[in-house]
Amino acid sequence: MIRTCDAIVLKTTPYAEGGAVVSFLGEHGERLTGVAKGIKKPTAKWVAAFEPLGMVRVAFFGKEQADLKRITRCDLAFSPLTLGHLEASLVMACLADLFDRVAREGIEDERLYRLLSACGRALKAKPDNALGILAYAEHWLLHCLGLLPHPQACGRCGSREAPLVLLSEDHGWCCAACTPVDAAEALPPGTRTFLRRLRTAPAEEAPAPDPADTAQQAVTALLRQRLLRELGGRLRSYEVLWRLV
Ligand SMILES: [Zn+2]
């Protein structure tokens, strides 16, 4: 049985005899995997189609219940890659890693596909803002995982005015009115405003990193740490990114 669908390439792992196991984010937001044979051959027509974050039309062949289906075709429809743009390429690898861990086989979440395709298009349009787009994706992934409460009202006392000072596991965002936090450890002023910017901007308008914006710096670090902890710790793609940019 052959099944064809739109998908986004996540990761490619070498497999027996010059083949590869490729994971994808399917158009309904579920994780798909298949074996592609002979991708190392010089004539292999689809090598470029397996670059991370490439948007493809892919055909799988195999029994419905088979563990590993065979990929019979994979056509590239859109590539977010900007040749020679190191930072954008490294961020693409990070995004592929993140979504490969968050997406589940057999569990559809269309928000994941919408988010990753929006980030891919934003990377193509604005490769210079790759780090801003990464932070944007991390924020929305936490939201999709149900780990990011709405920042409008304090999760403990309901205040909409007092500045947010921390993100707690039990109450979500907590404000200065109800939660005493040492000034050195509290989130900077402007945290709620920055979170609102992240929530309301499309991926192409993701806030660009601004070293002078302390709220942005603190929120980005906090959300990244929370997400990576949830996904089981350090990701190799991130280590490569921090080493090179
Ligand atoms: Zn409060």
Q: Distance N terminus to C terminus?
A: 45 Å
SS-based class: alpha+beta
Shape: elongated
Sheet with the most strands: spatial strand order: 1-2-3-5-4
Which cofactors or ions or other ligands sit in this model? Answer: zinc ion
Tell me the β content.
Answer: 15-25%
| Total of DSSP H or I helical runs spanning 4+ residues | 6
Could you tell me the radius of gyration in angstroms? Answer: 20 Å
The counted number of beta strands is 7
Helix content: 25-40%
Order of helices and strands: EEEEEHHHEEHHH
Indicate the mean pLDDT: 94
Number of domains: 2
| Biggest beta-sheet profile | 5 strands, mixed, barrel
**Residue windows where pLDDT falls under 50 for at least 5 positions:** none
What does this structure look like?
With 245 residues, this protein is of the alpha+beta class. It folds into two domains: 78 residues, OB fold (Dihydrolipoamide Acetyltransferase, E2P) (Beta Barrel); 105 residues, no CATH class. Helix content is 34%, strand content 22%. Strands 1-2-3-5-4 form a five-stranded mixed β-barrel. It has a two-stranded antiparallel ribbon with strand order 6-7. Strand 2 and strand 3 form a beta hairpin. The structure holds zinc ion. Zinc ion binds next to strand 7.
Please describe the topology of this protein.
Layout (H helix, E strand, L loop, with lengths): L1 E14 L3 E8 L4 E6 L18 E7 L7 E10 L7 H17 L7 H16 L4 H15 L19 E5 L3 E4 L15 H10 L13 H17 L5 H9 L1
Parallel strand pairs: 3-5
Antiparallel strand pairs: 1-2, 1-4, 2-3, 4-5, 6-7
Helix pairs in contact: 1-2, 1-3, 1-6, 2-3, 3-5
The site of zinc ion has 10 residues, from β7.
